[in-house]
Amino acid sequence: MPNLDQLSAFIAAAETGSFSAAARRLKKAQSAVSNAIINLEIESGVDLFDRSSRSPTLTDQGEALLKSAYAVQSSHHDFVAKARALNLGEESELCIAIEQNISPQPVVELLIEFEQTFPFIELELLDPGINDVAALIRSGRAHIGLMLEQEEYPQGIKFKGIGHSRRMPVCSRNHPLAQLKQVSHSDLRQYRQLVMKSLDPEDTSHNRQVISPKLWYAESPFVIAELLSAGLGWAALHEAVVAEQLEKGILVVLSRTYQQDANLQGIDVVWTEQKALGKGGQWLLERLFKLKLG
């Protein structure tokens, strides 16, 4: 019967596209990963990978069995998580990741109550850039996250929508675009666009925001806001990031000919099904579910 190490090696190789990358993810020798997959193929009686090319690719049988492997791994995680939950009381530490585009103020109000209820839990707060929260949750670095919604989440990540955030095109009040009553795509393409970009080199979601051929990238929206304030280009940023500069008149919102209102993007609470939360984490998660942001 296949064991969990074999299934983990199979899943990692399928997701990363190579045995060496799977070994790095699992922190094992490549030979150990290769042997685990070979033994799994022997026990299952099918070839899971086509090794005729430089990089192994899933066979049709491998594609079909990958779904079953996910199911077995998920069931194991559920079992372990429930067992830990039964034995865990109050955890000693908790890590929360809040994406920089989201205002932390509603969470701060919850944490005041959290500190009074769980005074001995060591709390850590992270402020990752766009789309980096899910990776922190999956790796176990963070336990609970708040992030702008994604179309798809990594395997094992659970999520629940709790509101939305307004994203709008902005620039310095002294920028040439600010002198126009309305701006078109053609107008925006004439000037440098500043775009948020994830630290993950495989994340290409920023490409969907590109309008201008003149680009600068930054992981932090607050760095972009500072560059805009200095008159360097324009950008689409979330209200929580630029609210103060807008109020002071340092930045202005551009009125677009092709879209009248600001874009609304959902905000999700994310956590993992692979690690059970203790009492403090469950308490916080339940209260985050009740927030209505935006």
Automatic annotation (TrEMBL):
<feature type="domain" description="HTH lysR-type">
    <location>
        <begin position="2"/>
        <end position="59"/>
    </location>
</feature>
<dbReference type="InterPro" id="IPR036388">
    <property type="entry name" value="WH-like_DNA-bd_sf"/>
</dbReference>
<keyword id="KW-0805">Transcription regulation</keyword>
<dbReference type="InterPro" id="IPR000847">
    <property type="entry name" value="LysR_HTH_N"/>
</dbReference>
<comment type="similarity">
    <text>Belongs to the LysR transcriptional regulatory family.</text>
</comment>
<dbReference type="Pfam" id="PF03466">
    <property type="entry name" value="LysR_substrate"/>
</dbReference>
<keyword id="KW-0238">DNA-binding</keyword>
<dbReference type="GO" id="GO:0003700">
    <property type="term" value="F:DNA-binding transcription factor activity"/>
</dbReference>
<dbReference type="GO" id="GO:0000976">
    <property type="term" value="F:transcription cis-regulatory region binding"/>
</dbReference>
<dbReference type="Pfam" id="PF00126">
    <property type="entry name" value="HTH_1"/>
</dbReference>
<keyword id="KW-0804">Transcription</keyword>
<dbReference type="InterPro" id="IPR005119">
    <property type="entry name" value="LysR_subst-bd"/>
</dbReference>
<protein>
    <recommendedName>
        <fullName>HTH lysR-type domain-containing protein</fullName>
    </recommendedName>
</protein>
<dbReference type="InterPro" id="IPR036390">
    <property type="entry name" value="WH_DNA-bd_sf"/>
</dbReference>
